[in-house]
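Subject: design request, 280 residues
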């Protein structure tokens, strides 16, 4: 898998507090904008939920980068799965009991679980990572925003249960996302998007801007897949979500590739593999 980070704090040009604000504020603003604008303007505004999820993904990837740089190594995939696992639990609880404040409640509940997990990791398992508690709290909250954002984009709402509006039954997240099993797709997409950027870029030459560009690119892929699912749900527009996701993916991948070339020691063509006769 991976050998681990540099064993200390990761250098960051963008302060983590700025990325926390980007994830929390940006994520919740896009999620609520999707919910209200779908009701006002129509299903095609559901793509905003996926933009909220991308905010959570980038924040989560940055938090993974910080804590994994202390040398977690093969723990990078585990901590990404942990984030989304906590996120799903918090999302189900928050949306089921919270109503209109469901997304906020999900983030708060996820943060509390992440805080407990980080405390146990440091005090019981003796991991000894200075930022363990803060990072697991952030990663769990980012996972919740990712889950809620992608679910909102798929369903066109973050209400958990079906509602009757103007005599019509509006399916909620439980009916649209949970029951058909699309939550499993969200789990894999969200976990990979949060854990993969650092896992793909770690090493002595790892840089924050390259890792976060990779996170944006993975968010674009998650958005495209979300759009494919949204094509079969009544309150969401899959076409718009797919198109916006493709644009985000292309721009982010282009920026990521620029940074890969910038940081690479050498780029050269290997040519074709030798034939069997040439080897003999």
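Subject: RE: design request

Done. Sequence follows.
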């Amino acid at each position: 898998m991976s050998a681990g980070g540099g064993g200390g704090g990761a250098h960051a040009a963008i302060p983590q507090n700025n990325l926390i604000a980007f994830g929390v504020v940006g994520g919740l603003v896009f999620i609520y904008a999707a919910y209200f604008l779908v009701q006002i303007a129509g299903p095609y505004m559901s793509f905003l939920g996926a933009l909220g999820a991308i905010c959570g993904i980038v924040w989560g990837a940055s938090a993974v980068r910080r804590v994994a740089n202390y040398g977690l190594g093969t723990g990078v995939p585990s901590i990404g799965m942990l984030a989304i696992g906590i996120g799903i639990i918090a999302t189900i609880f928050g949306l089921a009991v919270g109503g209109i404040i469901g997304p906020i409640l999900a983030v708060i509940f996820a943060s509390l679980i992440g805080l407990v997990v980080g405390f146990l990791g440091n005090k019981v398992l003796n991991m000894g990572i200075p930022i363990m508690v803060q990072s697991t709290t952030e990663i769990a909250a980012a996972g919740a925003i990712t889950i809620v954002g992608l679910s909102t984009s798929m369903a066109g709402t973050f209400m958990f249960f079906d509602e009757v509006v103007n005599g019509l039954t509006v399916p909620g997240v439980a009916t649209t996302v949970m029951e058909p099993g699309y939550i499993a797709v969200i789990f894999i997409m969200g976990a990979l998007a949060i854990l993969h950027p650092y896992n793909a870029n770690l090493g002595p030459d790892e840089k924050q801007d390259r890792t976060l560009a990779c996170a944006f690119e993975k968010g674009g892929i998650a958005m495209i897949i979300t759009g494919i699912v949204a094509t079969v749900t009544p309150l969401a527009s899959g076409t718009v979500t797919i198109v916006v996701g493709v644009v985000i993916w292309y721009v982010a991948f282009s920026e990521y590739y620029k940074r890969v070339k910038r940081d690479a020691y050498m780029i050269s063509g290997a040519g074709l593999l030798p034939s069997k006769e040439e080897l003999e």
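Residues 1-5 have pLDDT under 50 and may be disordered.
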